[in-house]
Input
Amino acid sequence: MKRFFTFFFLFFSSAVFGQNLIPDGSAEDFVECPSTLGNVETYLSEWQSFRGSPDYWNSCSENPLLGWDNSVGFQEPRTGNGYLGLVTFESGLGSVREYIGIDLIESTIVGETYFLTFYVSRAHQFNSFNLASNNIGALFMTENYLNPTE
Output
C-alpha cells in the first residue's frame, strides 16, 4: 500500500525590521477557486510549483474535496480562507517531494538577518496517511535550480 504525507502550509511570513517580504503569505490572492488538485499556478497569482504538484485548498471551492474538509483531512487555515499543501514524503517511491515557491517582494541582502515563520499541519485522513516528516525548512535561491520533472 502506498503511503504519502501532505503538509498544509497555513501561513508564511518573513521579516526584516518588521517588513514582510513574501507577497500573499496566506495564499489568499487567488485567481479562481480550486476545482482540481495540483495546478497551484492556475489558482494563485504569486505561488508556483517548483517540483511535483502542490495543492491549493480554499473554502470557496465548489469541489467538496478541495475545501477545508478535503481529501486528506479537515484543516481550517490559520488565517483567511485558503492554504497550500504538499507531499514531503511517500513511502515506496524513494525521494518523492513537492516544492512550492514565491518571488520575494525585495531581494535579500548578504549579511542581513531574516526571520521566516510558517505553520504546518499534518494531513490525517486515513491510517495510511499516518506519517510525519521532520526538519521541514525553507530555501532561498537567486535562481530556480529545482527540476520540476524529478
Observations:
- The chain is about 5% helix and 35% strand.
